Amino acid sequence: MPDSDALLAALDPEQREVASTFGVPVCVIAGAGTGKTRAITHRIAYGCATGAYDPAAVLAVTFTTRAAGELRGRLRGLGFPRVQARTFHSAALRQAQYFWPTAMGHELPRVSDARAAMMAEAAGRLLGHRAEPGTLRDLLTEVSWAKVSNVPPADYAELASGQGREVAAVDPAGVARIYARYEKVKADRGVIDFDDVLLCTVALLSDHDDVRAQVRRTYRHVVVDEYQDVSPLQQSLLELWLGEQRPDLCVVGDPAQTIHSFAGARASYLTGFARRHPDAAVIRLVRDYRSTQQVVDVANRVLHSRGRAEGVRLVAQGGSGPQPRYTQCATEADEAAHVATWLSGLITDGVPPGELAVLYRIHAQSPAYEAALSSAGVPFTLRSAEGFFARPEVRNAVIALRGQQQADTGGPLEAVRGVLAGQGWTTEPPTGQGQARERWESLAALVALAEQFVADRPHASLADLLTELDERARVEHAPAGAGVTLSTLHAAKGLEWEGVALVGAQEGTLPFSLAQSPEQVAEEQRLFYVGITRAKRHLSISWASSRNGGGGRRKPSRFLDGIRPDIGASQPARGSRKSRARAKPNCRVCGGALQPGAELKLGRHLDCPSSYDERTWELLREWRRQEAAAANLPAFCVFTDATLMAIAERRPADTGQLLGIAGVGRSKVDKYGDAVFAILGEESSVAPPG
To answer: DSSP per residue over 224-250, as a string?
Structure first.
């Protein structure tokens, strides 16, 4: 049995208060990086160690399987593997499957994973045509919101209209009819869906006193993590678990990280906890152990820049670090290139790629960063989303473009615009929300890629463009954990990295253009705050003045008002000497300024003369091929072509000279240096240094 005093001694004063306060309901307002998981797992362990808790009588619930797994892992490490730590849905499903046969006389209906197919059937019958994939996803989102908000089909249209909820091409009354039809399709198949799990469990506990009493006898100590994300349906289930006697209850959350209101989350359950429980102890965790003082300062200023905000004012415990960088770029392509250069510099300085992230508002922003990182030789992985080229709308568009190759008479850009117009792309974004808007953004991003390609290669053909798209798709991501993470801000919640590039911080993107009401804008502000607080030490915030040269001028995000310095286009904010030195590299041949990408790697303009031995170049490439194959990595994860060419040109004689080549960091020298020097040494007798 763990020593109870030792459990408390491992905590700071506020965490210790969380762990040792019993006999009253406890509400923990836990800021980002303040150790809430540590506090609640030590609370459970301390209660078990002192005899206040029976481990089998504890139920800890959270929202994701990853978070539930982390709770279980920490509790096992503290010596209490019997404690139940589950998601809301997992706990509800377990109870429903156990009690349903006795209470209802038959097994709980099977939980179907064919939601999209059932929605397609329901929508198709009422719309009279096959619904687009984006429309189906929006409809599923609306049905899910309705269920967790306790809104039946008959009430949907009125409530959705009042809250400004929209689905492209389907009015609220139509959504209500499709919702009702979807429920009938499920009933005809004898199945339930993911959201029905909670509804079934709530109905079971509400209607059967004996079942409700048995559940309450089993779980006498309840802990709810991420309580700011609770929906009305989850709150109903929680109240059924608790009953009027109110067993030991602890809720933990941060109203400043409420970013799922559109999906039904209501932070008011957290912020109003003390009003519902007058005897509650409210404890605030404010010590941020994740981030430096500089990052925390920005987070606090962003959160409170538009008046008083719910949540805590963080107090940094991570020491001092570099100042965050603020960069205004002319276009989105320039912004992506700037971010790739910044990340390359951090990797060269020894930060592992897996400790870096690029965070953006929507998935459709990713292709510019996929392309820029590929060009810079920086491995990356996409989190919680399909790669850009794997998205159905992008795949279909590329297939359609292949069919246009024989008729390529007007140039690749005209072909792209014509084909994508037939796929649903328009020059202006659609009204509506969610997947329909993201589908349009994906197609718009493909148009932007074509525009940039044609700008760089004015005489290229459609076949050339398709070859470029194929190459980008081929190197789309690195193995998980081996590269820079590309993620939406929503998917990044709960994670942390040594360095974070928060991109697209301009009006229309952050806050997103569809956020119109004060409540929606406030949620966008919280989303920005969440992104900032993912960074431990290095933080870059950037924005683009125009969409790849068109679409009019765009303003920096209002969330940066009074925070960002007054800077010109493409000039980073004041930082370290090393950062300033990197900002203006010059060609070693002609002395002119270099552009990000291959020119930086080579240290010269692409059209400036170079001298390297062809055999050395081929030996380096063959060695790289074998090395990448053995590690099951794309070749550029070892060294890019530009870096290999720079090695062949400069023929470094020692580690210091090798480290002086862009794209070669300490870890790569340690891993590949001997092999590179062996190749260069083998060639020295037949090829003088270039």
So the answer is: ESSGGG--HHHHHHHHHHH-TT--EEE
φ/ψ (deg, to 5) at 600: -65, -40
pLDDT digits (tens, 9 = 90+) for 246-270: 668 999 999 999 888 888 888 999 9
By the 8 A CB rule, do 247 and 221 touch?
Answer: yes
Return all residues near 561 (Cβ < 8 A) that are at least 6 apart. 305
Task: Centre a 10 Å sphere on the Cβ of residue 114 and count the other Cβ atoms it contains.
Answer: 13
547/553 Cα distance (integer angstroms): 8
Three-state SS for 570? Answer: coil
In this structure, the number of other CB atoms found within 10 A of the CB of residue 631 comes to 13
Distance CA 289, CA 59 (A): 27
Name which residue leads in pLDDT, 408 or 11: 11
N-terminal to C-terminal alpha carbon distance within the chain: 68
Among 313, 317, 281, CA closest to 16? 281
Helix (H, G, I), strand (E, B) or coil at 289: coil
pLDDT tens by residue, 602-617: 566 665 656 566 778 7
Closest residue by Cα to residue 218 from 402, 372, 82: 82
The C-alpha atoms of residue 274 and residue 251 are separated, in whole angstroms, by 11
* CA 157 – CA 671 distance, rounded (Å): 61
List b or e across 295-316, with b for residues whose CB sees 16 or more CB atoms inside 10 angstroms.
Answer: bbbbbbebbebeeebbbbebeb
DSSP 631: H
C-alpha 676/C-alpha 638 separation (Å) is 12
Q: Closest by alpha carbon to 285, among 596, 565, 29?
A: 29
Residue 472 pLDDT class (50, 70, 90 cuts) = low
Buried b (16+ CB within 10 A) or exposed e, 572-588: bbebeeebeebbebebb
Full-model pTM: 0.70
Bond before 511 cis per omega within 30 degrees: yes
> C-alpha angle 163/169/173, rounded to 5°?
50
Instruction: Summarize the confidence of residues 402-408 as an average pLDDT.
Output: 69
Report residue 567 as tokens.
């800077």
CA gyration radius, the chain: 28
- Signed CA dihedral, 360, 365, 368, 371: sign only: positive
Tokens found for residue 288: 């941020």
pLDDT-based confidence at 474, cuts 50/70/90? low
Lowest average pLDDT, out of 176-185, 264-273, 665-674, goes to 665-674
Residue 57 CA from chain centroid, whole number: 35
* Coil, strand or helix at 300: helix
Q: Which residues pair with 572 in a beta bridge?
A: 327
Round to whole Å and give the CA distance between 584 and 594. 7
- CA 227/CA 223 separation, integer angstroms: 10
Contact 36, 225 (CB under 8 A): yes
Report how far Cα 358 is from the mean position of its chain's Cα atoms: 9
Closest CA to 383 of 404, 369, 401: 369
DSSP assignment of 99-114, as one string? HHHHHHSSPPPEE-S-
CA distances from 597 to 108, 456, 540, 575, 590 (A): 57, 13, 19, 22, 18
Q: Is the model's pLDDT at 590 over the cut of 80?
A: no
CB 555, CB 544: distance < 8 Å: no
d(CA 161, CA 368): 36
Q: Look at residue 434 in the predicted model and tell me its pLDDT.
A: 52
The size of the chain, in residues, is: 690
